[in-house]
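Quick illustration, no need to memorize.
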Amino acid sequence: MDGGKTVTNTTQLDAWTGEFGKAYLQRNNASDEADLGPRTAAWTNVARSLPQAPQSILEVGANIGRNLVSWSRLCDAELHAVEPFVEAFDLLPATVGPRLSSAHNCTGFELPFADNSIDLVFTSGVLIHIAPADLPRIMSEVVRVSKKYVLCNEYFAKQPEEINYRGHSGLLFKRDFGRYYQEQWPGLKPVNTGFFWLGNSPFDDTTWWLFEKV
């Protein structure tokens, strides 16, 4: 696994790769069946929307890899991960297991993959923590690397807004990420969208958007 360090710093990255990120990891480190069962059930609804099963999947901002574990149960794709916080990155191999084909300790701003090289590239609860001015950089990388599908699962708001997050400003932003993808990259064809309700999934009332790259 690639242990290369991040090369792009932002206020948000400084927080998520420091003590703030460590506190998040301590609150969200469960990888038992109580978490993975509902998580897999949630992603199943997304997997059913895919026109074709992906042969490779990349999660940008994978944390310890619980979403990738779920996808490993849903298809036979090669699994790849990018995670900037080294303490979470170090837990990825043990969490995902031998299905993890590659993992990179770097940011989503400079993905270490070739153009059109991964069938499905996705984020989950990551774009909400990117400052609006930096969104084009990370989203363009997701689109660049994707060969077939782009997926994001994030908080939704009709208009962009910043939310105070655990007493901090500048760390959480909501918007219509699906519309933003379409506006910036009109070559993305909408496939489906849906809602993950906290009442029956580990996701905190998030909206997902799936696009096909054409």
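Residues 64 and 88 are 5 Å apart (CA to CA).
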